[in-house]
Amino acid sequence: MSPSSHPGHRRIAIVTGAARGIGAAVAQRLAADGHAVAVLDLDEDTCQNVVDTITRAGGTALAVGADVSNGTAVEKAVDKIAAKLGAPTVLVNNAGVTRDNLLFKMTAAEWDTVMNVHLRGSFLMTREVQGHMTEAGFGRIINLSSVSALGNRGQANYAAAKAGLQGFTKTVALELGKFGITANAVAPGFIETEMTAATAARMGMKFHELKTRAAADIPVARVGVPDDIAHAVSFLASEGAGFVSGQILYVAGGPKA
């Protein structure tokens, strides 16, 4: 057993896209679980509210600004986290954007932006952090996929990126498992966030109408909330999840795939 795997050892976690929504909920849950958390988003200032919430609750958190699709920025961010909090051994790749459009109207820029943040960003963050994990003999990598990976009208870019993350997750699990590192993906269904509220606005609907329509198609008869995803991530990041790797967990209120 390595020193970092002894019970009670405080692990260092990084959550990308953590200034709001699912990322914020995940960061707060991991902090409540006893991790020191790097709250990372594009603009460091937007992370401060989440950091303050964590510290008020007695946790430890650090605001970090970085563009996850920029290799130099990722390297600097992880170096800063390692220096100020310690070597990170839990990584949640949550940063994401949408640029929805039907295929015939989708621009190359809309495609590239989504690919760069979701796929390139997750690759760069994982590659940068895995060295700390292999050295510690322990690692938990959790990538945020989506039910959109199964196909979703108007989201060719987002669906392709989220499906790509599933293949990335399974490959990382195969490559890094022997070092005590697991890699899994959580694929949310309809979650109540600013992003889904923006979707309603684009559709010309009130948000509560979109939620009611979505809930009608969900077996548990409600839409999800960010804490639903945070609970799943908490399990996959835990000591007890060491024999769960390369899996895609659909957190969508019913069976998906």
UniProtKB/TrEMBL annotation:
Q: Which GO terms describe its molecular function?
A: 3-oxoacyl-[acyl-carrier-protein] reductase (NADPH) activity
Q: Which InterPro entries match?
A: KR_dom, NAD(P)-bd_dom_sf, Sc_DH/Rdtase_CS, SDR, SDR_fam
Q: Where is the Ketoreductase domain?
A: 11-189
Q: Name one Pfam family in it.
A: adh_short_C2
Q: What broad class describes the main subcellular location of this protein?
A: secreted
**SMART domains linked to this entry:** PKS_KR
- Keyword set, alphabetical order: Cell wall, NADP, Oxidoreductase, Secreted
Q: GO biological process: any one?
A: monocarboxylic acid metabolic process
Q: What is this protein called?
A: 3-oxoacyl-[acyl-carrier-protein] reductase MabA
Organism encoding this protein: Rhodococcus erythropolis (Arthrobacter picolinophilus)
